[in-house]
Amino acid sequence: MAGVLFADPFRRLLWSPASLRRSGLPAADWLETPSAHIIRVDVPGFGREEIKLQLEEGNVLHVKGEPASSASAAEKDALWHVAERAEKEEFSRRFGLPDGVKGDQIHAQVENGVVTVVAPKEVHPAKLKPRAIPISSKL
């Protein structure tokens, strides 16, 4: 599961978009606003019914693409002279969402080959109370 490597938002900075395309992983953007985390994943050619989104245990958002068969009976029996367009390939990406996300309010939309997932944040997350932190020593 190579997609798990990209769960840490800082680790994903080590990978360039070009290396992601070569690996079969779709390119993605993740931005955080004051009210939500927004993740955009490139899914060119995929329809809504071919994309699966699931929130897994541990606040992991799983984005999966499973292409439907696109070849018609006429195409299967045809003699191809040029075939340059890429076939849609199955993909899977996982994103580790931070605490404070409202899991029951996550929603998504696909438009123009991009699926956009919006994960709203808690408006008033619990704040830590100031306190002294003891320091231990092994000496």
Automatic annotation (TrEMBL):
Residues 19-136 form the SHSP domain. It holds the Pfam family HSP20. Keywords: Stress response. Gene3D superfamilies: 2.60.40.790. PANTHER family: HEAT-SHOCK PROTEIN 20 FAMILY MEMBER. Belongs to the small heat shock protein (HSP20) family. This is SHSP domain-containing protein.
